[in-house]
Write a structure and sequence with these properties.
The chain is of the alpha+beta class and 243 residues long. It contains 10 helices and 7 strands.
């Protein structure tokens, strides 16, 4: 069976058009692999024979570890290196590839997620100290929160997120939980708590679509329970009571 990649192409906020490419890759090959194959052709032509510009998309690790290759694959936001052609295609072998819709498009499948990273910086989400993670539950939660790839897929499906507004979505929760929980009482912890309440808690209605889509399986709901207890209701965590 041959696969056909229908790629939504365009630049910036301008008009976009679909361009269709036949792929010789196998069902078990990833969408990222098929895009790489297109990028390695000496002359790129679409299925009508029209000479095509190189397709712009982001990737780095190709191992589901960096989050760069997030895009919309046959209507579902996902990592291109995590989805096989066989899984993405309809029975006719057709696959659609589109850029994430919640972020400004740069070109083709490339988007600008810079505003999200700037928002995390504004929230002062950096660790100033390391907490004692001997408690098993605490260690496990930190480990899983640290698995966030910053891919932005959670923001793509979040009903409350739109680029340029202050709501930071699950990406912000994963980072805020780690910093807030590891910080001791003081001005940094207080400002992280304040930023969390303003930039997440006041806007979230817990659809949890973020948790379902997350390729890193970040346990968003568990993190919310913990950080809400600490940063919103000022309750001590069980592991703090054990000290
Ligand atoms: S929480 Fe999951 S979906 Fe959201 S940025 Fe992190 S890894 Fe991606
Ligand atoms: S290229 Fe790194 S997650 Fe896909």
């Amino acid at each position: 069976m041959s696969y056909h990649l229908n790629i939504r192409r365009g630049e910036g906020g301008g008009a976009s058009r679909w361009q269709r490419f036949e792929s010789p890759c196998a069902a078990e090959d990833s969408v990222a692999h098929a895009l790489e194959e297109l990028g390695q052709r000496e002359f790129l032509q679409d299925e009508t024979g029209e000479v095509a510009e190189r397709i712009a998309w982001d990737c780095a690790c190709l191992e589901k570890k960096c989050g760069a290759c997030a895009m919309v694959i046959s209507g579902r936001p996902a990592l291109a290196c995590a989805v096989s052609l066989g899984a993405a295609a309809n029975p006719a072998g057709e696959i659609t590839l589109e850029p994430l819709r919640k972020f400004p498009r740069i070109r083709d499948l490339q988007v600008d997620r810079g505003a999200c990273f700037a928002a995390l910086q504004e929230m002062e989400l950096w660790l100033e100290e390391e907490a004692d993670l001997t408690n098993r539950e605490r260690r496990e939660l930190h480990y899983r929160a640290a698995g966030c790839l910053m891919c932005g897929l959670c923001l793509e499906v979040c009903p409350h997120f739109s680029a340029g507004r202050s709501f930071v979505g699950a990406m912000g929760v994963a980072a805020a939980f780690r910093v807030y929980d590891q910080s001791t009482e003081g001005s940094h912890r207080a400002s992280v708590g304040q930023a969390y309440r303003r930039r997440f808690f006041s806007g979230c209605t817990k659809s949890l679509a973020c948790q379902d889509i997350c390729p890193a399986k970040v346990p968003v709901e568990k993190l919310l329970v913990k950080i809400n207890a600490a940063a919103v209701w000022h309750r001590k965590q069980q592991w703090e009571k054990e000290k």
